[in-house]
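Quick start: load a record and inspect it. Here is DUF1264-domain-containing protein:
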Amino acid sequence: MSSHTTFAPINQIHQCLHAYHVPSHDRIQVVEAFHYCAHTNPEMHQCIIYDSDQPGARLIGIEYVISERLFETLPMEERHFWHSHKHEVASGLLCAIAVASPAGAAAKLASNYVPGVAAGMPDEVEKGPLSELYKTYGKTIHTWHPLDQKLPLGPPVLMTSTTAAHPGPRGDKDLLAQRKEKMGIDTEAKEEFRKTYLDPDYKVVEGADHWETSGEAKFIEIGRRPYKMEGGEMSKPADGNGAGAT
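Running the structure step on this input writes:
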């Protein structure tokens, strides 16, 4: 084992994806998200999420992305924390803006992308990674929400994606016009091109996007409870009744 620290985990980042996240409990809010992703294995990505692609960007969350096969192994209750990527990809909302070989260092991202300036990747170039992402599922947590706070305050927030029934920013022409002006991404053109290679009949696996079928949102709630101490004893809450309170 090396005696000094390395940047190996960071150097495995080989994708930058741009998309929009929606809080599980509030379908009105939309959060711009820059994903910097690495493959831990062929069936799983793990992504660091920032609020921009600029120096000084805020780290606002994480996302785990798994294959359809792995998602189908999850218990139904666990699936309710995950969202599909079918609509995000098909609608043109999710875009690859930098891609390299998984073996390449982050500094060698192979694209024509210049942060904050250049357009998203050419359609033919992003076809490969997006074909893969189309049938994947994500579990996303934002630790900095809302973004108008100067610090990441409060509990983390479970985030979701868009669906055909609830397209979110896909119906916000102003938001997409701003992205086109800033990043050169033509969302409608990407949607049309992706129709040439994505399967429109793909069925999202049961349990994903649970809020849409149940009418209820999963969310993260912080509670209080006694904690274990040395020797196996439990702490005694200040109220003295030994019961945790939320």
